Amino acid sequence: MESRQRSTRTKAQQREQTIRTLVGEARSLFATRGYAHVSLADIVQAAGVTKGALYHHFTGKEDVFRAVLEQVHQEVGERIAASAPTSDAWTQLLSGCRTFLTASTEPNIQQIMLIDAPSVLGWGVWRELDATTSMQHLQEALQVLIDDGTIPDQPVLPVVHLLSGAMNEAALWLARSANREHDLAHTMTALERMLESLRR
Amino acid sequence: MESRQRSTRTKAQQREQTIRTLVGEARSLFATRGYAHVSLADIVQAAGVTKGALYHHFTGKEDVFRAVLEQVHQEVGERIAASAPTSDAWTQLLSGCRTFLTASTEPNIQQIMLIDAPSVLGWGVWRELDATTSMQHLQEALQVLIDDGTIPDQPVLPVVHLLSGAMNEAALWLARSANREHDLAHTMTALERMLESLRR
DNA sequence: CGAAGATACATACCGTCGGTATGTTCGTGT
DNA sequence: ACACGAACATACCGACGGTATGTATCTTCG
């Protein structure tokens, strides 16, 4: 039975809305100032609620950060997945890498995903989350290339970690580059050469 | 004229000793618990001094961490420099990479240098420090190989950042590996292949 | 040699922050 | 209609980073 809505928002809507703005404001604050320099007071003030509301939905500051990080990871993953929908596996891998580099260069993604996350949540948790999104894409793409014989059979995990770390660091560097487009081009050619080395 | 030493320790010796133990204890605490979960009270208690002493030599908690990080960086740099004293540039690069991977796998180096440092000091400061030690070696080695024609002329910075990031992440992964020696071997072969790709 | 100043610490205290316990409102199932 | 629980708000606590100030010890120089 449907309940009439005496008020404009139902409880569930209210909950969702509060969490959304909370995570959203927290994300922008974390991105610009860094996790350590953001207080819970800042977050709840920006979201227009109180600490009690925050602690009703999250277990603490770290939990808010985890929610933010999950959102960021999901966003990056979607952008990678949508980068080259219809192509062969090889060019799909390349465009995926390029998309990751450009996405991870944006400051509001970078500070959260690449700088603070390992320190705040610990490397293990960070890698777990990453393994379900961007790293997942990389690993799958490589496995496909191994299965269809494009690159010889070899342990994928070492390669995945090497490439993932390479792109993470490259993204951090590119974000501070004075000539980003120029450096991105050189980085991509160098990265392509590294990927080619797997081929042969 | 030398001043006679009425006491067992002169002031300069005392200062040096205090700083040494302070940094040493802080390092071990930071390494095991991570920066955020170490209080100044923990550090000064372990070092056997008070907060006043700490604040006499350092500007704050962050400054202590910076001193610790500099020590770690210097240590890693020395180990890399001593890894392959008399060889051609190419094998020198390879053994340098191997040394970095094994050194950075140790937990008391890893937590400080690879996990906390970017978040605590900011990526810029972290990279500055790195650029004077481990990254410095990598860049110089590559430049030598370019100058003697082993690898073709190309922008070094993109390659340096890609390789540096790759090894950082690989070290973090190897540290949690169930079969470290085995994975290290595969990582090195994959890394060698990537380096080979620069050659030709 | 000894007073003056600098250096190396110790003690006491403050503001802020993360976290918790409790109170209040209000939608919702029965 | 009403009771219950979810969604908040309010008030408060302990701990931590940081600072101000006091004190003992070494060094310097007339």
From TrEMBL, chains A, B:
Keywords noted in UniProt: DNA-binding, Transcription, Transcription regulation
InterPro entries in the record: DNA-bd_HTH_TetR-type_CS (IPR023772), Homeodomain-like_sf (IPR009057), HTH-type_TetR-like_transc_reg (IPR050109), HTH_TetR (IPR001647), Rv0078-like_C (IPR049484)
Residue ranges for the DNA-binding region feature of this UniProt entry: 39-58
Family annotation (Gene3D superfamilies): Tetracycline Repressor, domain 2
Occurrences of domain HTH tetR-type (ranges): 16-76
Name of the protein this chain belongs to: TetR/AcrR family transcriptional regulator
GO molecular function annotation: DNA-binding transcription factor activity; transcription cis-regulatory region binding
Record bears the keyword DNA-binding: yes
Source organism per UniProt: Phytoactinopolyspora alkaliphila
Pfam families according to UniProt: TetR_C_41, TetR_N
